[in-house]
Amino acid sequence: SKVEFEHRCRRLHNVLDENDLSSSMSSSHKSTDPIPLVISSDEWKTLEAGVAQRTRLFNALAKDIYGEQSLWKKGKLPAALLFANPDFLQVVWKVQPPGGIFVNLTATDVVRLKDGSFVAVEDHLQVPEGLGRALENRIGVSRAFPELFRSMRTERLAVFFKKLMDGLNEMHKDIHTQGEPDKVVLLASGPDNPRRAEDAVIARYLGIPLVENDDLAVRNLQVYMKTLMGLKKIGTIFRRVEDGMCDPLELRVDSGEGAVGLISTVRAGNVAIANFLGTGVLESPMFKPFLPEI
User: Fold this and answer.
1) Where are the alpha helices (DSSP H) in the chain?
2) CB 277 within 8 Å of CB 92
3) Which one, of 149, 127, 140, lies nearest residue 31 by Cα?
4) How far is it, in rounded angstroms, from Cα 35 to Cα 44?
5) Fewer Cβ atoms within 10 A, N terminus or C terminus of the chain?
6) Which residues of 209-242 are buried (b: 16+ CB within 10 A; e: fewer)?
7) Predicted confidence (pLDDT) at residue 293 exceeds the cutoff of 60
């Protein structure tokens, strides 16, 4: 009934009000549709395959950009597309991440056309947003409409986050270390950044420490986390900070979010970063006309 539906909607908004992410984003959750967009398993498989293929393409592009730059040498891409791009990080040129994986996580904006097909319109590769919002909305809808949620056999988000965490743990396996296992941490954006609340939600769900620049220390080309028990070596940094803000020593000197000396540890191969530094260059819309030919 209408009364019951309005009651469920109020319950949904109450759940969102109690969440840290909603409280930091004012009343933006009031526009949350209580009836989520339903995508069939077949549609999702097609969409998943397309996004995965797009991610592999971006990873190959990043590997070439910060490696041999063969696409430019062969004339397939104009030089200005790279060297006139302010997001190209010369400081990590020829630096290869563990396993050759530059793009560990992406967020892709898609639209559905009249014929039902999907088209990607924008990609977010530096700091993909939306993970915290997805968690928040899923929790809210599952509590407001538990019967509907169970009967539709909705795919669980936990599977995705487990794969994400497994990947973060795997990244530093090839980095030689002695003593206790290296830690995985989430490098959060600044306290005034609207993305900060989402960083906290993600770190709490993954069960990893949330750190700021003051929590980190670089010693002998190693990155450590400051704790009451002393310095703890970091193996993987899941960054939520833009490329240019990660190291005020070699990038933006006005950065209050990165760690001084972080780039040097990356060049030495002593820490893994997801996504790898420099992936922001691929967010430029100037790449789009050339993607089909690549």
Assistant:
1) 2-18, 20-24, 41-65, 70-73, 80-83, 131-144, 146-151, 157-171, 196-206, 262-267
2) yes
3) 140
4) 18
5) N
6) bbbbbebbebeeebbbbeeeeeeebbbbbbbbbb
7) yes
Confidence bin at 177 (pLDDT 50/70/90):
low
Provide the residue count of the chain: 294
What's residue 27's pLDDT? 45
The percent of residues in the chain predicted with pLDDT above 70, rounded, is 93
Condensed to tens digits (0 to 9), the pLDDT of residues 225-275 reads 999 999 999 999 999 999 989 998 888 877 778 888 999 999 999 999 999
120 phi and psi, to 5 degrees? -80, 130
Q: What are the phi and psi torsion angles at 276 (to 5°)?
A: -65, 150
Q: What are phi and psi of 69, to 5 degrees?
A: 55, 40
- CA dist 82 and 76 (Å) reads 12
- Distance between CA atoms of residues 249 and 253, nearest Å: 6
- List, in sequence order, the alpha helices (H) in 66-189: 70-73, 80-83, 131-144, 146-151, 157-171
Q: Which pTM does this prediction carry?
A: 0.88
Phi, psi of 64 (to 5 degrees): -75, -40
Q: Identify the three-state secondary structure at position 185.
A: strand
23-54 pLDDT, tens digit each: 454 445 456 677 777 888 889 999 999 999 99
Distances (CA, A) of 186 to 72, 126, 183, 195: 35, 14, 10, 13
- Alpha-carbon span 62 to 95, nearest angstrom: 11
Cβ count near 280 (within 10 Å): 20
